[in-house]
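hiii so my PI (J.) wants the whole complex modelled not just the main chain, which honestly fair. so below is everything: two entries, each one labled with what it is. i double checked the lines twice but i was tired so who knows lol
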Amino acid sequence: MSNEPFNADREAYRYGFTTAVEAVTLGRGLNLEVIKAISAARQEPEFLLNFRLKAFAVFQKMEEPTWAHVDYPPIDYQAIQYFSVPRANDKPATPTYNSLDEISPEILETFKKLGIPLDETKRLNNVATEVVFDSKALHTTHQKALYDAGVIFCSFQEAVRQFPVLVERYLGSVVPTVDNYFAALNSAVFSDGSFVYIPPHVRCPLELSTYFRINNQDAGQFERTLIIADVGAYVSYLEGCTAPQSSKHQLHAAVVELVTLDDAEIKYSTVQNWYAGDPITGEGGVYNFVTKRGACRGKRSKISWSQVETGSAITWKYPSCILQGDDSVGEFYSVALTNGRMQADTGTKMIHIGKNTRSTIISKGIAADYSTNVYRGLVKVHPKATGARNFTQCDSMLVGKHSQAHTYPYIDVNNPGAQVEHEATTSKISDDQLFYLRSRGIGPEEAISAIVSGFCKDVLKVLPLEFAAEAQKLLTLKLEKSVG
Amino acid sequence: MAEPLLVIEHLSVNVESTPILKDLSLRVEHGEVAAIMGPNGSGKSTLSKVLAGHPSYQVVAGTIRVAGVDIAALSPEERARSGIFIGFQYPVEVPGVNNADFLRLALNARRTAQSLPELDAAGFAPFLRTAMERVEMDELYKDRQLNAGFSGGQKKRNEILQMVLLEPVLAVLDETDSGLDIDALRVVAHGINTFRSPQRGLVLITHYQRLLELVVPDSVHVLSGGRIVASGRKELALELEAKGYDWLDKR
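here's the output for the full assembly
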């Protein structure tokens, strides 16, 4: 291995381009007027405006959390644009696009470059995709097939207009506005996102996916996702993210809420590849401060999170499950890769409340270069959660001499019959391993790929097929220059 | 007459600027089995690492040619693909990597270099089965993680399995016999013997005579203090066994 921690010719972040799109914004800064303006621009009902105002009042009293193992200069919340939508062809900031013709060709080109064709003739056959560009959901494919199945999959704004009762009932019911600083901020200013409702006993015929893109360099992205699987329903949801390369930090503070009723199941997968900042100076990159939580409200219901985190300058994210229904199941499968100057503090919370609830946590952290990679997890068993079981496997892999891996497992058991297991390992991709594989004719890239996919196998195998292949490529690409 | 398969001329090698090999010369013909013996710290393992192209070993003088090609500029993977195989004294454990997947990657790398089509998992299965039978290795080892938790003997057997599978032109086995029980030694020796052919060359690096009773060498070289101090036929090994390395120093 060379003494140089970085290679100057490291493959540049390939999604780092910016699209020249005229944006309609509300300017910088956060105050009551901005929040009212966001709500008014989106023609929101009163309950939603009140939700925002309440959240803003809470936010102003809260302090930014400092317990995470991350280090960054103070964020100037007044320098951020909280609302940025691309101007539509000929029309100023219309609420929805009825057809692709109304989206500017530059944006269509952007998504084509990202490998996400919106054109129905080029679409992926079994994946319905929604795309969110800065603050605005642009388009949802496969509307008809979903409509026939009774599935609602639309932008959050659309849901507020068409299904206000559902939105009012569930919004903030899993992640309350007071939950944490960034959730409160999101609740005050969230702009768009996805809404999914699967009616009773429907198995969603397509994989649903949302693709998030931050384009405006000065705008934060504050999307809100709400997914409800009614009794006996099933849905698999995929999320992908990229942002242009920028010397400034961009704030991404999303909230995702999932609800499963009796016998329902939600599988939520993420491949996160936000711009991670300059690998040597640490300049720029996305601050990914996200609150994701699912409530297994119903008996025998199940929520499964799987994530491959490969980007962002800082990640602060703990997709969690509240296992309220008896016999409900929570799962968390995670691969978090950090390189350059990235810092990730990620993990999960499994809150066992119902009887015989079960949870599984499989976390694989890979830290390279000068990065820091933290697993932080809580397994909590309430006094009434008789028969609760948890299994946690938490593995870290270090690459190079300067990277760090930390594990902070919190276990809080209040029921004597609960069974909680925790296993953890730390390993290194060593020069010796690489040399051994190379001495058998296997090139360095293939060798890294073999070692990393072996390490991440337990997580990659639960990802939807296309995602698994993409994730594996991404991991190899990011590690190539860090090893050897 | 064609050049010998392996020609090492005046080779000097440093590890972190400490000279280990000093002006070493050695020739191994096609079809020849050469044994290299020598006391601890004489540079035997260094020789195998240098042939493999390990980046920590700096060649400061001399040349190594294999089948007429100077290998100085070749990366470890290029050496392997061209048919050079090093059986290591301490094979590395690589947890997470499936043994069969690894073996297939290695064979496909070699086949691609030979302009042969790559094998998919199904196409590879019979190759693997045959090779495993030859080294009497239990099938369950193909689904194990590469060398992870293998006993010393199983690791060595896995090295021989790789050699049999990859069909190299030149194989260098570094103390493959150490740490083996009698049965394992017999199996390894059998694997090596079936590998012998007029086109191939084999270098056995060993401390002891006992492997050489099962794999009879054509030549024996004694490495001491970083250079070859004596060369002879198989009888030299017996003499060494009886009299010890000191005898050479006194001679």
